[in-house]
Design a protein that fits this description.
The chain is 69% helix and 4% strand. The protein has a 4-stranded mixed beta sheet with strand order 1-2-4-3. Helix 1 runs antiparallel to helix 3, helix 2 crosses helix 3 and helix 3 packs antiparallel against helix 4. The chain binds zinc ion.
């Protein structure tokens, strides 16, 4: 049977293109400029010896090192949150301006306050453990800290959808809001040869804050779930919802959460080792000038945050390359799993990328370096081209199938 050629080229109408270009510029400035700004301010604060000043303050409260951390760590974490504030304000202004966000400022400040509180609370716990390990062994702390981080990471992935996410958005069972859609999604699950109970499908009230559609997979073990934003249900035709859901089911079936945890464990090990080398060198070389007697002293915390900021920036392309890889796999799976459920999977997929790209104002031809460094997903243009052309069921095709 001959089918009409599927549109493979992602493009934006002129008015949306102008907005997409401006938005991409703003994001690039916010990311690279924001990183440079954070590094500059932290370096300045270390140079003017804020670290020893905070340590002296903490030493007045207690002579015990762990108790000093209860003073020094929260102060530095608040400083870090405040350094990031201008960039966050700028990006929310931009997102409101281009209509991607509809979140009122009062609600935005509420969210900012909550995430700042989480940063200070969990950051203080993490830094207390870290400095206790540094005091225990100035040579091996990075390894012990990594060992402790492994179970913490598993627990965090398990708990985030149950404890943290509901602090920022409202979730309800999809079966309650849209039972007809659940029936359709169960067909996709059955097509993939698995049973995902409806109790693991949730709808999130994203429309209170954003305009674009989305869905995602989160959690681990008993907390593993698929979340569809209510914006998706409102703005996307049903066949395309199946395609989006098929992609998420791909993450679920292909164990991307577990693979992601294993990958980040490996990256963390390298990260902590580099942090150890750089931190030790920095304090050894400039400790005299900055009045930091040793890495184990709380006066070194600003220098540590500086090291972590630089290394996080350098680690971003590594994490994003991995993410783009699994996102592509989920695209492949998603397109295969709707085969037989929608008349033309290629058309459904490519139309959904066109729609999502327009709603999110995705740039048709993003800068290659920016993609390499900051994109967690392949550019919409390449996802759409792939979707339009990919068909492992075409006779003679040698494309491997993820879905039988
Ligand atoms: Zn995905």
């Amino acid at each position: 049977m001959l089918q009409a050629a599927v549109h493979a080229v992602y493009s934006l109408p002129p008015d949306k293109l102008v907005k997409a270009v401006a938005l991409a510029h703003a994001r690039t400035i916010a990311y690279f400029g924001g990183t440079a700004w954070t590094i500059f301010v932290l370096w300045l604060l270390v140079r003017v010896r804020l670290g020893p000043a905070i340590r002296d303050l903490a030493a007045k409260a207690s002579r015990k090192a762990w108790a000093q951390g209860m003073v020094a760590a929260p102060i530095w974490l608040v400083v870090l949150v405040l350094i990031g504030l201008p960039v966050s304000l700028y990006m929310h202004t931009v997102n409101l301006h281009y209509g991607l966000s509809v979140e009122p400022w009062t609600m935005w400040w509420g969210d900012f306050g909550k995430s700042a509180a989480l940063t200070v609370i969990f950051g203080t716990i993490a830094l207390s453990v870290l400095y206790a390990l540094i005091r225990h062994s100035t040579r091996r702390w990075w390894l012990w800290f990594w060992v402790i981080c492994l179970p913490v990471e598993v627990a965090a992935v398990f708990l985030v959808p149950i404890v943290i996410d509901p602090m920022f958005n409202h979730f309800s069972p999809l079966a309650k809001t849209d039972p007809a859609l659940v029936q359709q999604l169960e067909k996709v699950a059955a097509r993939g040869g698995l049973h995902i109970p409806p109790s693991r499908m949730y709808v999130m009230d994203a429309s209170a804050k954003v305009t674009g559609p989305n869905a995602y997979v989160t959690g681990f073990g008993a907390s593993k779930r698929i979340v569809v934003w209510d914006t998706t249900i409102r703005k996307v035709p049903q066949d395309e919802i199946l395609a989006i859901y098929g992609h998420e089911q791909g993450h679920y079936v292909l164990h991307h959460i577990q693979k992601g945890m294993a990958f980040s464990a490996a990256v963390m090990l390298a990260f902590f080792w580099f942090a150890y080398l750089l931190f030790t060198w920095l304090v050894g070389r400039f400790g005299g000038r900055w009045r930091i007697p040793s890495v184990a002293d709380w006066s070194s915390l600003g220098a540590l945050l500086l090291v972590v900021t630089v290394l996080s920036f350098l680690a971003d392309p590594v994490g994003n390359a991995f993410s783009r890889h699994i996102e592509h796999q989920a695209d492949v799976y998603g397109e295969e799993v709707i085969h037989g459920l929608v008349p033309n999977p290629q058309a459904t997929m490519s139309e959904s990328f066109q729609r999502l790209g327009e709603l999110w104002l995705d740039l048709p031809d993003p800068n290659g370096f920016v993609v390499f460094w900051t994109y967690s997903h392949p550019p919409t243009s390449s996802r759409m081209r792939f979707a339009a052309e990919y068909d492992p069921w075409v006779p003679g095709s040698r494309a491997p199938k993820l879905v039988k």
